[in-house]
Amino acid sequence: xxxxxxxxxxxxxxxxxxxxxxxxxxxxxxxxxxxxxxxxxxxxxxxxxxxxxxxxxxxxxxxxxxxxxxxxxxxxxxxxxxxxxxxxxxxxxxxxxxxxxxxxxxxxxxxxxxxxxxxxxxxxxxxxxxxxxxxxxxxxxxxxxxxxxxxxxxxxxxxxxxxxxxxxxxxxxxxxxxxxxxxxxxxxxxxxxxxxxxxxxxxxxxxxxxxxxxxxxxxxxxxxxxxxxxxxxxxxxxxxxxxxxxxxxxxxxxxxxxxxxxxxxxxxxxxxxxxxxxxxxxxxxxxxxxxxxxxxxxxxxxxxxxxxxxxxxxxxxxxxxxxxxxxxxxxxxxxxxxxxxxxxxxxxxxxxxxxxxxxxxxxxxxxxxxxxxxxxxxxxxxxxxxxxxxxxxxxxxxxxxxxxxxxxxxxxxxxxxxxxxxxxxxxxxxxxxxxxxxxxxxxxxxxxxxxxxxxxxxxxxxxxxxxxxxxxxxxxxxxxxxxxxxxxxxxxxxxxxxxxxxxxxxxxxxxxxxxxxxxxxxxxxxxxxxxxxxxxxxxxxxxxxxxxxxxxxxxxxxxxxxxxxxxxxxxxxxxxxxxxxxxxxxxxxxxxxxxxxxxxxxxxxxxxxxxxxxxxxxxxxxxxxxxxxxxxxxxxxxxxxxxxxxxxxxxxxxxxxxxxxxxxxxxxxxxxxxxxxxxxxxxxxxxxxxxxxxxxxxxxxxxxxxxxxxxxxxxxxxxxxxxxxxxxx
Length: 729
Hints:
Blueprint lengths: L8 E6 L6 E2 L13 E4 L6 E4 L2 E6 L1 H13 L6 E8 L4 E17 L3 E7 L3 H8 L4 E2 L17 E5 L4 E8 L10 E3 L6 E5 L5 E4 L9 E4 L10 E2 L3 E18 L5 E13 L5 E8 L5 E16 L4 E14 L8 E7 L4 E9 L3 E7 H13 L5 E2 L21 E5 H5 L9 E2 L1 H12 L1 E7 L5 E7 L8 E4 L7 E3 L5 E3 L2 E4 L7 E6 L16 E5 L8 E6 L5 H8 L17 E8 L5 E3 L7 E3 L14 H7 L1 H5 L9 E7 L6 E3 L6 E2 L4 E2 L8 E11 L2 H9 L4 E5 L5 E12 L4 E9 L5
Parallel strand pairs: 25-29, 30-45, 34-36
Antiparallel strand pairs: 1-2, 1-6, 3-4, 3-46, 5-8, 6-7, 7-8, 9-27, 10-24, 11-14, 11-23, 12-22, 13-15, 13-21, 16-21, 17-20, 17-22, 17-23, 18-19, 18-21, 24-26, 26-37, 28-29, 31-32, 33-44, 34-35, 35-40, 37-38, 39-41, 40-43, 41-42, 44-47, 45-46, 46-47
């Protein structure tokens, strides 16, 4: 039974259909009403809930039943809860929540339903997997939003080592026959088709062995017209049998001559092989042999030619009917053509949004509010609102495969979900997010590094020591103050990096933004720490996509079109941005072409170190030991160093000391203690702060809220605290 000093509440149902109705009888279950705080175990932010299940009787039951009959489960009904202040003799609003009719149950005397927190937070949580057009101007519910102008940057060309190799097999494809008849057909261009490519990273169009009648102008077709620039190495060997024979015994020829050439563009050709034979008498066989190697810088649009010229003459036709001779080029095993180059192409533009605007648009669209985000970590001096300085993670572009390829935004916009984007940013930067109130009372999503959500400030000090034991309803003493180990905050393995990185190119193994694993110096835990993102940061993947340019007449798509990318940027003159390569690094080694690299700051070993405080929390007794590198995809030899730091090697073990100081211990306190409404309000005003309490032995302890349930009717709270690693100053 509640005592005579019990907090007084009153309840009013509100709807536009029936107007307000104050309850003469308190709903069943009101004694458990109170505020609840919960910290997300991965994202660190705290959310406030007022969810409670209430049973309405008498006029309340009739009211809710009538609204449900009129409007169905989507009916909008609020519950206003007011608390009486004996000092001012006034009723004050304690809480206004939304009745959830979708799970309601009814009996002859009771209408039972949940009362939930409405608005900003609930909308966001329900929609975090919803896909949003980042360049659109409407929220998920169709409300108008301010326009965001896309940011267009110039993507530099990452150097790619490309290869082409074709080897004539033991059983070559039969040659296509050609014919010498009358006129120009006596003059032929010979082409040497080696077969299907073993490796083709250039996109060379396959040619077939054979001859064609030589036209009057531009007779030769290039083997390849370069789409890139670089130092090309070309090596080939031709072993080919030329056969010319009479067709059906008609006609005769006496002479055949020819040459095999290699040339670049319109330069003078290099003669590789020549022949001139007479006295043929209508049947001719000639073994053509030509080999050549060249290494030379080529530019985009340069043409590579390999061909021969054939002339058949001194022809005598039959007495009746035209003459005709069959010409065959039979490629033989041992023939090959190889080409490789370290290539680059011209820079190309790509549109996207910087990360602050991308997160802001997602928050706006999901919550239907034009003001929905705050982040000093991603904010910049030129965002709205402006921040005093560019945040540590602010110069990061969000774009997609369509934009990287150059598709017009009117054809292909940029889409994202909050969950996918934030999970990738969490992996990169050890982030957290939660809801906060601005000074004007508006709720926003706060996105910062995880440490932000574990403030130094003590927001609540419990006056009386927390008792080890409390009586239950029968008067029996039960444990109250529990110190628990947290196995889900200690790890046996840690993963960091990026899930998508492979481009099916052989030199893709030079890509460093892949996935890595480290074994922690523990035996008992079973959990794996996962800091692997789904967005693409791999420079080879980005470059491969960038080179497949949009063509207004083409319909070809690629597997990366709908993939999203993150690209590190730097400030450039005149308020623009440029891609970050290695400009700020003191050392970069173990990497092909460091000066054309992308996203060195987002390498897996660097990412894992940003998560160091979370990993170190479970390694309190492992000082002096190491996280042992156990597995890595792609390029594990990369080593980078920024000015003033020790080199970060991707394949290296990581000393526990290099993880930095932990924020917490992998332990929690659980207890119930007296807590007034004023104290609960102080906690709600800054839920990131510490709670300090004294145990029955007089020892002071501190922890951050993991879960907090304040029960208004009993003026007490249930606490679950994450134990602080060190006490506040």
